[in-house]
Amino acid sequence: MNIHNLSPYLRIAMDSYVSFPWYLEERVLFDYEILYLKEGRLKVTVEDDVYFGEPGDIFFFRPKQRHSISKVGTDLVRQPHLHFDLFYQEDSHDVKVSFKKFENMTKEEMKWFRSDEIDVLTIPLASHIRLRHHLVIEKILFEIIREFQMKLPFYELNMKGLFIQLFTALLRENYWNRNPHLLSNINELEQVRIFLKHNTGQKVTLDELAKISGISKYYLITLFNQTFGMSPIQYHQLMRIEKAREMIQFTNEPLKRIAELIGFPDIHSFSKAFKKIEGVNPSFYRKKNKSNS
User: Fold this and answer.
1) What confidence tens digit (pLDDT) does each residue in 47-60 have?
2) Sorted alphabetically, which SMART domains does this protein's record hold (predicted)?
3) For the chain, which terminal residue's Cβ has fewer other Cβ atoms within 10 angstroms, N or C?
4) Residue 154 CB: number of other CB atoms within 10 A?
């Protein structure tokens, strides 16, 4: 599955309060569930792993994954949660929320199990995530619940958009938790990124970037790649070509002059770099601009 085909279906979105001793017996779900612990404490068992949840924590349950939940202590537990399909299917409306063990499922219920494809889309998503910025996710979650309850016109569409924001924030939290070394260097990496973005008219060297960031150039390449998905030099090249495309479309500067302004020695090296990133020659955007004027 491709992440660009994501088409979430929100089955349940509710805010739940538990003020009494409570234990949810082991079960498996047909779909996915995100449970956010707003107040109180929980003990959550997922397969054979035991987690203790505190306010601001997220629990993530997958289809067919054994889990049980129990309240810890006497304080009120508040646990807003969502049940959802990552990809809308024809039977998405028919699927229910399960409270059964796998071995107690009927043949008809077995047909409702969704494929677990999250790890195909991204790095493995943990069952328990201790959030760094829980208020960001909390705000989106309660907006989703409000839309689900009010059901204003086009609420389904708005919930999809809100869910994608929530899911993105959750994936990023999961990514930072798995790569704490990136987070500890994020300010330096952002400083390098901004420098590259605002210096498109010249070539830059790794030695120069290492001096700016205070990070050795080889480690900088690794960190930058893990954070932004490409090396610093690749990012700089991308920014230069984006700037060139903008100038081709919205100015009358000759292509040779544009190549000079973004630091290329000649039109040939500029055209080669441009085509490698854009897939077309620079003149494509100049012709397109003229045809629309």
Assistant:
1) 999 999 999 999 99
2) HTH_ARAC
3) C
4) 9
